[in-house]
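Entry type: protein chain
Record version: 2
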Amino acid sequence: MLKIYNFLYETIGIFIIKLLGHFSQKICAGEKEKFGNYGFKFLNRTIWIHAVSVGEVMLAQTLINKLNFKNDIVLTTSTPQGQELAKSKLSDKCKMITYFPYDTKKAIDNAIKAINPEMVIIMETEIWPNFSKRMKELAIPLFIVNGRISERTFKSYKRLSFFFREVLANYSAILTQTHEDAKRFVEIGAPENRVITSGNIKFDIEKPDDYLRHKYRLLFNALGKKVAIFGSTHTEENEQLIKTYLSLKEKNDDLKLIIAPRHLEKIQQIEKILKFRGINYGKRSENSTFDNNDVIILDTTGELSKVYSACDICVICGSFDKTGGHNPLEATVWDKPVISGPNIKNFKRIYKNLCDLDCAFVVKDYDELEEKMAELLDNEEYLERVKESCRRALDKNRGATDFTVKYIEKFCRELYENN
């Protein structure tokens, strides 16, 4: 099966990547590094952490802040967005930030020679057959951390369990977010004694200090105003979300809006809608404020998680289309009520935790969204109760990062003692 995989990946897969690279700079970004041509070589052994894109980089930051190893850290990503965020947030913690290699023997061997890893930590779930096989052959511990498998992915992987059984045997340990994730890993072929439920590192998001809590209120001149934010919006959602805002503003004249598109190249679409509706707007990149704007477009990278601090209500988007939602905890950590659309498949278990504690709400459509936003905006006591629930929700679910770090330290200590 691995031979078939290699043939398809190295011929058809790489060909398609190169072909698409002619039409998109994002796809071909870091192509030299992805083939293992890094231009550096570490003499001392490193800790290699891989974080696919933006969400995984945020998790990696939480983990890196807790690691006690003295080794230099090399962080790889697969996307330019992940690179940009990693370099802005972790350049002082990582000796090198670069791209993960393609899953070919030559690219992998080149990467190993350059990075010289003592261990490799994969954030969430990246299963690369050749990469994991090479780590096993070289006796380099390989971990999946904060692992998860969605219901949809599980169904696909289970059909190929005969293949994944061989691949997952190469991992030293798989630490999962929930017992359900652990069960799914075992069912697709992971050795049961190497799968451990550690909890979700996302809940260990760092609590902000009081200065940060007020910084963006001041930057946007939002003091004394009610502010809503539509976070990580997608193209199909923007029109209806802006209509919802306008409807709410008819009853709350001082209501302001921050709209943060998931993909910055979609900003022009948002601007077109705002202009058509006659709405005064500005951009974060231009230091716009609410002094003369009703809407501010967040057109910067990696700032959304902090900008949630400036609002009273957070609507987490990518949940009114087929995307599957985005991480609500980046808003919860600021004690902000979170509202989501019905499609939360990517964060179903997190939303269950938050909804059970009455600090998040999942609505079925835009009409229900408007009703819930109005309820929170019009009832100050209710809003304060929800904020208190946010604090309890995070405190109740913390601890996964400490568990993960202690497990890896213990694993490596025992490994070296036995050798």
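Comment: DSSP finds 19 helices and 14 strands in the chain.
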